[in-house]
Amino acid sequence: MLDIKIIRENPDTVRQAIARRRMDPQRVDVDKLIALDEKWRELQGQAEAMRAERNAASQSIKKLTGDERNTAIATVKALKDKLASAEAAAEGIKGERDQLLADMPNLLAADVPDGGDDESNVEISRWGEPRRFDFPARDHVEIGELTDTIDFDGGAKVAGSNFYFLKREAALLEQALCIFAARELLPAGYQVMSTPDLARDQILSGIGFQPRGPETQVYSVENSDLSLIGTAEIALGGYHADTIIDGSKLPLRYLGFSHCFRTEAGAYGKESRGLYRVHQFTKAEMFIYCSTEQSAEMHEEIRAHEERLLQKLELPYRVVNVCAGDLGAPAYKKYDIEAWMPGRNAYGEVTSCSNCTDYQARRLNIRYRPDAKAAPRPLHMLNGTAIAVSRTLIAILENYQQADGSVRIPDVLQPLVGAQTIPLR
Hints:
alpha+beta, eight-stranded mixed β-sheet, 21% strand
């Protein structure tokens, strides 16, 4: 969440961020929040004055006797009741204020483009040239059928629509891509983690996900406070909840492997065909905890790793700076990387990386101590996709397809898969 001091001192900056994000100002009402905060501080001041008066009266009792003592005791009791009432009122106002504060989005970096959806994202670079085929290019769904490596019918029979089985070389590619990511990122200081597939709802809320209700995009477990994670970002972000980290250890870099589960409600259509929007997939996720001063550098580091992985896979891509209206509430700035997908005849998102500054850290109570004598302060948290297997498979199958429908496996993955091609079957 935002630091309440920012809202007190720079309310117009917060209003501007809300407007640029195209959020409903009545739902995220800055004026109401400020009024509640002022009322809470007023009640806190009154309670503090009552507390001081009660303490002074309590001390005076020791020196009194007889009727004066009885009167003082009655006064202290009355002050105690009055204080309890004031504290309860203050706590109620604080609860209302904090709920509204939790709904406030992060601020925006100065170079975040304006716009309401992904059509306004700004391209900043490209790498590689889309392949020109001398035969009619197939999409990954048809290739999966021809090579018998992706079974959507079997997935639908077992789990419902938008589930699938990966078979043969596709299943091996799933494992190979994760090992490939680890091999590339371990030398860069990333610690490998295999995360739980479930997290407590308070962790999801802390990261910025809606764990329950009509707007949720995650699956919740009935009669529990658990939900299936939509990304390893949730588990890795919650790993240090309620912790003070030694500043000398920052930045902390993690590479988390997890299954990801998403309802993808309302996300169907031609562009969502096949593996592009599915309910379950495997992902390798980079996650960094760092100081305020390291934040911008770490964001560029994550982006550079994402680009390097795609370059080694020899997949053409473009990088876009995501516009304000297409950002999630926690993100201060975000890059998407879109690989060329011949089946769509367009670029499609395969990775993203976000700088969430101290927004998630404040919600999860994660702080760091710059040195032994310094007071703890909120740190910055960043996340980025190393490999999202389902969409990376789309790009590999479609870019490496051969005229007969077979697929050449990228050179860097051939030793891990144990094959050079995916044959027809």
